[in-house]
Amino acid sequence: MSWSSNNDDDSPWGKSSKDNKKSYNGSGSTGDGGNDDPFKNIQDRLKKFFPNKNPASLSLVLLIILGFWAISGFYRVGTDEQGVVTRFGQYVRTTEPGLHYHLPFPVESVFKPKVTRVNRIEVGFRTSQSQFSQNPQARQVPEEALMLTGDENIVDLNFTIFWIINDAKDFLFNVRNPEITIKSIGESVMREKIGQTPIDPILSEGKSIVEEDVKNKVQSVLDYYKSGVLVTQVQLQKADPPELVIESYRDVQRAKTDEQRLRNEAEAYRNDIIPKARGEAERKIQEAEAYKQEVVAKAQGEAQRFLSVYDSYKSSKDVTRERIYLETLEKTLGKIDKIIVDKNAGSGIVPYLPLPELKKKNKNIETREEKNE
Questions:
Q1: Model confidence at 58: pLDDT above 50
Q2: Taking the model in full, what pTM does it have?
Q3: Which residues touch 201 (CB under 8 Å, ≥6 apart)?
């Protein structure tokens, strides 16, 4: 089908000039001999929009437009960004911060994601800013927060995943909806870890271990997907029993605390009494050992003395017998008060010798002499 120049209203380009009668057919050729120069066709079309301009002015306008189109290829990448250049949608190159150039649209395009900004994903709760309060308000999401522990208890757990873009190319082209992907992976890994851990470590000293294990596992899955995401931290915001049983659980925890306190007190008492008992037992053992050695030594001494006396007796029986007799009298009568009465004393002499009184007088005299000295 062709457009006729006899009826100017039928032309798709509007009315044509009367002094240049031409017809335009569907093949793109003109009726005056078939000029197929596309630049000439553009000039002819521009003439219709600018009928009072000469060809030189039209060329200048065209060059200015081409210049602006070429200049539009310059772009700047910020210090916190990476530039990803695509050509007709296909990845071409990655550019670092600074001024760069790419072929203007629609040939090449550039994406500039923020690679240093720390992003956060909340699981189990959502925070929102209220117009009546400056502090963010937290809204619980029970279907995400309630998890089953390894000892078949239920824990209400909220946590946050902090992440940055590690590789802009992988982030843009390898994973669709990265935030949803990270959230799904984080929730799945956390449920797996909680399902392998008893509830007590989760609520107390085991939180840091859970955070580190979940972070490493999420990162390994994202690396497997080549997502270009680096997980910087997994932080547990809250780990409590469900609200319906939290008071009962706190009672149990208080009972366990009392049990641990009593256990510690008993342990302290044991640590105090056992060393004392061991010391007392050791002292008695040493005393018994000393007594044993003393008794044995005495027995051996007595036996040795008896043997020596017996040997002396065998060599000189009379002398030994007399010495034994005198020693026996000395031991027997040495501490007894004695009065000697001489039956052979003559008349006029009192046959009485008060030895105890004389002994006491001698002791008193010696005591006074010591004091005077």
A1: yes
A2: 0.53
A3: 207, 209, 210
CA angle in degrees (0–180, nearest 5) for 107-97-120: 100
d(CA 248, CA 251): 5
Neighbours of 313 (CB within 10 A): 15
| Residue 240 CB burial class (10 angstroms; 0-12, 13-18, ≥19) | middle
The answer to whether the beta carbons of residues 115 and 81 sit under 8 Å apart is yes
Q: Where are the beta strands (DSSP E) in the chain?
A: 74-77, 83-87, 90-95, 98-101, 108-111, 119-123, 125-129, 136-140, 146-148, 154-165, 229-240, 339-340, 353-354
Bridging pattern class, strands 98-101 and 74-77: antiparallel
Do the beta carbons of residue 136 and residue 129 sit within 8 Å? yes
Q: What is the pLDDT of residues 98-154, one digit of tens each?
A: 888 888 888 888 888 888 899 999 999 888 866 666 677 788 888 888 999 988 888
The two three-digit tokens of residue 255, written as one number: 């009972």
Q: What DSSP character marks residue 103? A: P
With CA atoms as reference, report the closest residue to 167 among 156, 178, 152: 178
Query: What tokens appear for 47 in the block?
Result: 């003439």
Q: How far apart are the first and last CA of the chain?
A: 162
